[in-house]
Design brief:
Layout (H helix, E strand, L loop, with lengths): L1 E2 L6 H9 L8 E5 L6 H11 L3 E5 L6 H11 L4 E3 L6 E2 L3 H12 L3 E10 L6 E3 L4 E2 L1 H4 L11 E3 H4 L11 H13 L2 E13 L8 H15 L3 H21 L1 H9 L2
Parallel strand pairs: 1-2, 2-3, 6-10
Antiparallel strand pairs: 4-9, 5-10, 6-7, 6-9, 8-10
Length: 252
């Protein structure tokens, strides 16, 4: 869990981990040089629960590098991600680990709910049953807060030092090892959208999509003309008609 200036909301994210029905977890939180009382909140939790580890960057490094630092320290068989303003449902870890172990899957993801600051409507985003590198070239339906992968089988994978869409590249890198990713079709997480945050700039996200493809695929110059129109269309449908997006995405 990367954390930066989130003293008023990080306790919700931490409590969603503490309330898991699966208890054999460790939560590694990396404070990215917060200017508020975020670190104090984290340390209070770490002092009261030995499963929580508090780390602090010596300089601001961003969410991707902070996740990498936590990944490097992780001791468990599985790695999962949760941002400081997002939530897991109480059965997230139990259901997903059971799903992976009963099917011998190494890389999985789930459905997730989106909550926007200016809206009360409940939106659940679904995902394809199976993903591979080819499908990931024209879409990224995986929510970071839903991912889990098996470290013992494929090793630790680290995100690139990219301001945006670093998680997109990370999934592709994991797929180089796992070959396939599988969806547990349950809504097990809540993603909170900050209208003033990085997620708000659509044009920049398109620019970083180009960077993702260029960094992840050898023949990117052949792929981009084919995948970009599909990527843009799916983004448009996702933003305007989530219900129709879910119908399309589940069958891809």
């Amino acid at each position: 869990m990367p954390a930066y200036n989130c003293e008023e909301k990080i306790h919700h994210a931490i409590e969603s981990v503490k309330s898991q029905t699966y208890c054999n977890w460790e939560l590694i939180i990396v404070d990215d040089c917060s200017k508020d009382e975020t670190l104090r909140v984290i340390e209070n939790y770490a002092n009261s629960d030995k499963r929580i580890l508090s780390l602090k960057n010596i300089r601001n490094k961003g969410a991707a590098e902070s996740r990498n630092i936590a990944t490097d320290k992780a001791l468990g068989h599985y790695i999962a991600f949760l941002d400081s303003d997002d939530l897991w449902s109480k059965d997230k870890l139990l259901n997903q680990i059971t799903f992976m172990e009963s099917n011998s899957y190494d890389f999985t993801y789930t459905y997730y709910e989106v909550k926007k600051e200016d809206q009360r409507k409940r939106i659940i985003y679904k995902a394809p049953k199976i993903l591979n590198k080819i499908k990931m070239s024209f879409m990224c339906p995986i929510g970071c807060l839903t991912v889990m992968y098996n470290v013992k089988k494929i090793g630790k994978i680290y995100a690139p030092k990219l301001q945006r869409r670093n998680d997109y590249i990370l999934w592709i890198e994991i797929l180089r090892k796992s070959k396939l990713a599988f969806c547990l079709n349950q809504n097990l997480a809540t993603y909170k959208v900050n209208n003033a945050g990085l997620s708000s700039s659509k044009l920049l996200n398109i620019y970083y999509y180009f960077k993702v493809i260029k960094l992840s695929y050898k023949y990117w110059y052949l792929i981009l003309p084919l995948t970009t129109p599909i990527y843009l269309l799916l983004i448009l449908i996702k933003k305007t008609t989530p219900e129709f997006y879910n119908i399309i995405i589940k069958n891809l």
